[in-house]
Amino acid sequence: MEQLYINAFIPVTAAEGPGLRACLWVQGCSVRCEDCMVPHTWDKNKGKATDPSTLLQILAETPDIEGLTVLGGEPMDQAAALLPFLQAVKASGLSLMFFSGYTKEAILESGCPHKAAIIALCDIFVDGPYLKALTSFERPWVGSSNQRIFFQTARYQHLENKLHTIKNKVEVRIGEDGTIAINGMMPKEKFLELRHSLKNIQ
Question: Which keywords fit this entry according to its UniProt record (predicted)?
Answer without folding.
Answer: 4Fe-4S, Iron, Iron-sulfur, Metal-binding, S-adenosyl-L-methionine
